[in-house]
Amino acid sequence: MASARVVAELECLRCHAVYDDQRLFTGCPRCAQQSVNVNLTVRVPAAARGPLTPESFPAAPRSLWRFRRLLPLPDAEPVSLGEGATPLVPLERLGRRLGVPRLYAKDESQNPTWSYKDRLCSLAVTHAVATGARVITIASTGNHGASTAAYAARAGLPCVIFTLASVPDTMKTLMQSYGAAVVACATSEQRWTLMREGIERGGWYPTSGWVVPPIGSNPFGVEGYKTIAYEIAEDLGWTAPDVVAVPSCYSDGLYGIWKGWVELERLRGSPRCAIRTGSGCRSPTRASSRPSGRSRARRGSTPSPPRWSG
Ligand SMILES: Cc1ncc(COP(=O)(O)O)c(C=O)c1O
Ligand SMILES: [Zn+2]
């Protein structure tokens, strides 16, 4: 593997050990010694960001990279297809039916390859290029694979996708249409084994996880999901909604969005903005276990204006 330039540190979600290995995508080695598989998260020192206000985020580019002062890789040239900046659509009729005033949908189908995976892939492939990657790889049955293929193509890098034979041809064709080599395996374990070979022997750069049991995806990519929180906050006049419901599989999106709210809360200098996950969705962090008494916004209440600190 080409030696990777240090662009940010990685911190364990559980024991908070910090690592500067830029390709440590197999989780925390210290926790693994205790037989606990846990992912790392990118640590961007607050001092590196400088003072921030809502005006710190320029109108351009029309993508999530508007928020790059809250993202890692400050000096990297973004690998972008215009991801993010998706509409927050009011759902009045459905909200009335469900008894939820001010119900919105964040329409992530407006992303370049039609899913929120583009936020992850833009960050991950930008990190891949910044650290000298020559080949991008992923194990995926759908959107994540199509998105990885598109961003690898954008970066001019080959992409190898390990998928399942049972995946519908339409999805395989979508991945191939972005130029990826798609390898169909019989089982998930087989595709993770092949992917590991590519990573360990060939220095291929992964946008998804491949360890068993799964720990989630590439921590640099997960940073991209923070921008969902930033965009929602901005569209709501820099306030937080009562609840954000997130569809979840490995919880990359759920964790990234939660982290975005936490970082906004710290920037504002206010301890009173809380985010709760929908029922059945539990963040691997302490977000969902916060005492509800600390939550500012109640259902139907008007959130107070944010206070930003420098
Ligand atoms: C459209 C869409 N939403 C949500 C998810 C869940 O993703 P995560 O692994 O971030 O929980 C996926 C992928 O599995 C997806 O394709
Ligand atoms: Zn750890």
Structure description:
By secondary structure, the chain is of the alpha/beta class. The protein folds into 3 domains: 9-43, no CATH class; 83-110 and 222-298, Rossmann fold, CATH 3.40.50; 117-217, Rossmann fold. Helices cover 32% and strands 12% of the residues. It has 10 helices and 11 strands. The strands form 4 sheets. A 4-stranded parallel beta sheet has the order 8-7-6-9, with helices on both faces. A 3-stranded antiparallel beta sheet has the order 2-1-3. Helix 9 (226-235) packs across helix 10 (252-268). The longest helix is centred in the last third of the chain and has 17 residues, at 252-268. The site of pyridoxal-5'-phosphate (PLP) has 13 residues, from helix 5 and helix 10.
How would you summarize this macromolecular structure in one to three sentences?
The chain has 310 residues and is an alpha/beta fold. The protein contains ten helices and eleven strands. It folds into three domains: 9-43, no CATH class; 83-110 and 222-298, Rossmann fold (3-Layer(aba) Sandwich); 117-217, Rossmann fold, CATH 3.40.50.1100.
User: What percent of residues are in strands?
Assistant: 5-15%
CATH topology of the largest domain: Rossmann fold
Major sheet: arrangement of strands: 8-7-6-9
Strand count, sense and closure of the main sheet? 4 strands, parallel
Low-confidence stretches: 270-310
CATH class of the largest domain: Alpha Beta
Let me know the average pLDDT.
Answer: 85
Radius of gyration: 19 Å
User: How many structural domains?
Assistant: 3
Shape: globular
Q: Tell me roughly what share of residues is in helical segments.
A: 25-40%
Helix-strand makeup class:
alpha/beta
CATH-level-2 architecture of the largest domain: 3-Layer(aba) Sandwich
Number of beta-strand segments: 11
The unique ligands bound to this protein are: pyridoxal-5'-phosphate, zinc ion
